[in-house]
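Researcher: Next entry in the queue.
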Amino acid sequence: MQYLISYDISDTKIRNKVVKYLESFCYRIQYSVFLCIHTRVRVEIIIKQLKLLTRNDETKRLLIISISDTAKTPIWCNDESFLIKEESVMVV
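Model: Structure for this entry, 92 residues:
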């Protein structure tokens, strides 16, 4: 499974911790976007760690999107209001 992990974190100290964590096993493809290739179990661990690292930042945005053809999109977001209903997404 392949996943895109994206973040919007204003706190520099917290953001640097997240970047260091993600760079340890993901490919950075843009400033705040990483590509990860892991199983579903590993993604659950990533989510737990991201929650832990960002627990003191109330304004953060974290998003993990599956880009594999067999998974749901998105698989996790820390803000439910950010999630897009599948029927409103058009893939080009």
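Model: The longest helix spans residues 40-53.
Researcher: Noted, moving on.
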